[in-house]
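Why should sequence recovery work at all? Because a backbone constrains its sequence more than one might expect. Tight turns favour small or flexible residues, buried strands favour hydrophobic ones, and helices have their own preferences. The token representation captures these environments compactly. In the example below, the structure is given first.
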């Protein structure tokens, strides 16, 4: 089914194909990367919503960042925050060559410390794809800086089915707490898409 889907959607750009190939060869956890299907979904959300200001929490390889830039207008700005500065050379190799590179602002550090210092916003869209045990904290930080009518996208919210397995590790617990927090939050409308490892779409009223 996955192969059929990928064969019937817009293809990856050559830059993203190269990024993906190198990630699978050189990185220990290439599965953390957004990938083809999710990348096209992110681009499509941007095409539909036309956000001018985006926050991405968790850059990793820059794959999703490049996809967000692909879908936005020329005057959009994307602030992306990555805690692991050892990823800098990898991600910048590709971000620096992306057609939308002038829209992207890369920040290194703990997002909980970096985002409050950006002194920009409110954001039109926020994409959360970082430390799973910090998802509840990221949400509490992100909500006030998201405009009314804005969108939060949170990745990996089905967490490989571990939520139903009784697992109690820190990352699984973080996702479970996050999902319950969103379920009970009447300030937003929400839906979980069974896309890859789960993508929660959260619309702020």
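From this structural description, the recovered sequence reads:
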């Amino acid at each position: 089914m996955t192969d059929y889907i990928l064969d019937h959607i817009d293809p990856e750009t050559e830059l993203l194909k190269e990024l993906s190939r190198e990630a699978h060869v050189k990185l220990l956890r290439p599965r953390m990367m957004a990938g083809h299907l999710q990348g096209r979904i992110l681009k499509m959300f941007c095409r539909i919503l036309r956000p001018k200001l985006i926050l991405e929490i968790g850059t990793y390889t820059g794959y999703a960042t490049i996809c967000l830039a692909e879908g936005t207008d020329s005057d959009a700005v994307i602030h992306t925050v990555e805690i692991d500065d050892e990823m800098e050379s990898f991600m910048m190799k590709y971000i620096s060559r992306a057609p939308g590179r002038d829209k992207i602002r890369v920040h290194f550090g703990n997002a909980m410390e970096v985002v409050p210092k950006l002194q920009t916003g409110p954001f039109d869209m926020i994409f959360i794809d970082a430390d799973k045990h910090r998802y509840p904290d990221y949400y509490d930080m992100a909500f006030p800086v998201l405009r009314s009518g804005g969108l939060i996208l949170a990745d990996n919210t089905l967490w490989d089915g571990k939520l139903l397995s009784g697992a109690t590790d820190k990352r699984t617990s973080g996702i479970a707490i996050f999902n319950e927090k969103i379920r009970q939050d009447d300030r937003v409308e929400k839906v979980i898409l069974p896309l890859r490892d789960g993508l929660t779409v959260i619309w702020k009223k």
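A few observations help interpret the result. The radius of gyration is 16 Å.
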